[in-house]
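Researcher: I'm comparing several assemblies side by side, and this is the next one on my list. It has 906 residues spread over two chains. Same procedure as the others: predict the full complex and return the structure.
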Amino acid sequence: MPTDTNEAPWEVVEQLVASRDAAGLSDYLDDLGPSETARAISRLDETCRNDLLILLDPRDAAEVIEDVSDAQAVELIEDLPADRAASIVDQMPSDEQADLLGDLDEEDAEEILREMTPDEARTVRVLMTYEPDSAGGIMVTEYLRYGQNATVEDVTRDLAQHREQYARYDIQYIYVIDDASRLVGVLPLRELLFAPHAAPLRELMITDPLSVPATASLEDLENFFDQYDLFGVSVVDAGRQLVGVVLRSDVEEAAADRTTRQVLGLSGIVGGEELRSMPVMVRSGRRLSWLSINVVLNLVAAGVIAAYQDTLEAAIALAVFLPMISDMSGCSGNQAVAVSMRELTLGLIRPNELLRVMLKEASVGLINGIALGLLLGGLAMLWKSNPWLGVVVGGALAVNTVVAVTMGGLLPLLLKRLRLDPALVSGPILTTITDMCGFFIVLSMATTMIEKL
Amino acid sequence: MPTDTNEAPWEVVEQLVASRDAAGLSDYLDDLGPSETARAISRLDETCRNDLLILLDPRDAAEVIEDVSDAQAVELIEDLPADRAASIVDQMPSDEQADLLGDLDEEDAEEILREMTPDEARTVRVLMTYEPDSAGGIMVTEYLRYGQNATVEDVTRDLAQHREQYARYDIQYIYVIDDASRLVGVLPLRELLFAPHAAPLRELMITDPLSVPATASLEDLENFFDQYDLFGVSVVDAGRQLVGVVLRSDVEEAAADRTTRQVLGLSGIVGGEELRSMPVMVRSGRRLSWLSINVVLNLVAAGVIAAYQDTLEAAIALAVFLPMISDMSGCSGNQAVAVSMRELTLGLIRPNELLRVMLKEASVGLINGIALGLLLGGLAMLWKSNPWLGVVVGGALAVNTVVAVTMGGLLPLLLKRLRLDPALVSGPILTTITDMCGFFIVLSMATTMIEKL
């Protein structure tokens, strides 16, 4: 359909929705590509988004849902009537169904599951029992499985019959099972090219194939694919029954999502992704929940300053340096937090290796503390022509840098042992400790030499 | 070989290196798995690491290099004599060769390239001309390509002959080229199962296949794989000659690496990854380079406090709140930075949509500013039983939260337009602006009502 090239994509979509042109809409979104579709949808108001998903046929609507980010998909599906949502979810691949429904409120998910095709619903309910970042949560259920007595000809015939359906599968291997659905072998698909037609799979297959339990963690899977140069691995349950296949690319994607959550967590975005298309009260509320904890922690640190008001009044120049000592120590500490989190992810340190991390960080902290202390102390001394001011400010920054760097290195390990998320929790705790400690050092030092300041 | 189970893996490795047991070492590292190997290597001293890589035969040494992280690999290779390094690099897949050599100093890389097998060196030199995060930098050169006149039988024979070699390839497709090496078609490997033996590929292939230019960016590739449900795509140069294949899993991996750099950048780790196995002076130096910029920026903000020393001396209670206002504004601003960076990555906003971001953030900033201002202002009022202190502190935090949140939302867009890395630069700039602004608001308000404080 002809469109004015000056119009933004969401304006075109709005017009197509308004004129109830389902075919035109489907074509337009197809051409738009996923990133532009996501962007256009984020610009529509709620009514228009709803109308759009109801206007499109469920298969096209499912494609839209797959185009947008997880957080957007949840927004879109939540606003739809359950029966409509169910018919759209029905059209999605099983692992994405499970991810999407897992992100919804339990009540909403249950309502949609009740409206879904019973078979689809059953598969998804099983997938939803696995942890999202486990082999069971990452695996796909679209793969090729045959009994061990099937012949090459049986397989070839099945492949030819289901060409269309299998075209979307990632097929490098066929998985071979016994009568009890237990995994007994794998066969690289290309081996079928060289095999006699009448040969049963059990004679061709690689026996005792590698597999991972459905409970394997994302770290386990990353290690597995680091060690073995494979594109997928079969997933078995406690009874060695084959339940799915984990693909290397899906493990990479899950790892990327985990890192994204770290970035967001480090910056104080909690409760999953925030998009600017979300209602302003939801965005404010989520950010405030984290900020208000920070206010309380800040008050604790500010209490130290309050306790030394007399010292501060007598040497007001110190007030200029307090925010600097707080900020610089926070920065030094955060660097150490980042290095520890990275080494934990790479498996280079274990949460119990506190001594090693402490020694490694203390030495960096000492060098940087001395460097920064000399710099700031020197400046303070020159500013007021008072060497004692330099000693107090520089000395405090030096000592506090050692504390901040060491604590920053240790915190992620300690939090990991307490099963807390280092990305979300390290920052506020670190700031509180280094602020309290920094303010205390500078103000107590100043109190002992108050006549000289 | 029998080993004491109480010994740490690196102690075993040390002993095996000391006893020059190349075979035992190779077996032990094979069983250890990549994550444990990386950890053990990070515990060895430089001499032992060198001896290890010289003791192992080049193929085994190459596997060790592939097991460890990129930063570790660079450390290991840099310390080796060029001829030894070259024989190890020779054994690696082409895309990893290019990544590793690209991470080395230009001089070191050139020395190694001169010592490498001429053929390998030529391929790597071409790969190294591409940007690391482009299709050319991400692609593999291990894939199946045949002329359009090759028959199904030719292909099957070639596959059978090179079974071993091809076992490591990710093969879903055969790429078909004309006499000038231009891509003319693709054929799903499984279609060979159904095709007559004498048929030439040109009759079976899908013509006009999808491909991406070697210069395509990582974002282009992410969009491509979002739009098309494929496991790989062919890469062509300016003359449409086929030069490689980009796999979906490698794009996912590159995206994960980019996010990791963001995490590190946000925390002030510059110049690539830092590992605790690096020399302490290198670690200190890199961290200090970022910290010293921060000191200077902090001094600018502290200058505002220095200018208002008289006000502060007259109302010393304000000194308690200055670090809090600085910290809380920084936190609020960083949340907005994270949301903008995420929306930029997802393609939901463009760097030029400043007005939209400003309005969306200003509204959140206003709500959160009022909430936080009332909270902190109320506490200040109660503490000193002085409503005016509450007005100054609460009012300043409220206004500064609006500034911080709006600036935080806009900064990543502005930095992107200036082609600066938002992850590395947003934090320090934001802190400086919000500190200056916050200190100015609170102290100038206080000055106008100094008798009441």
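Model: For your comparison table: The mean pLDDT of chain A is 92.
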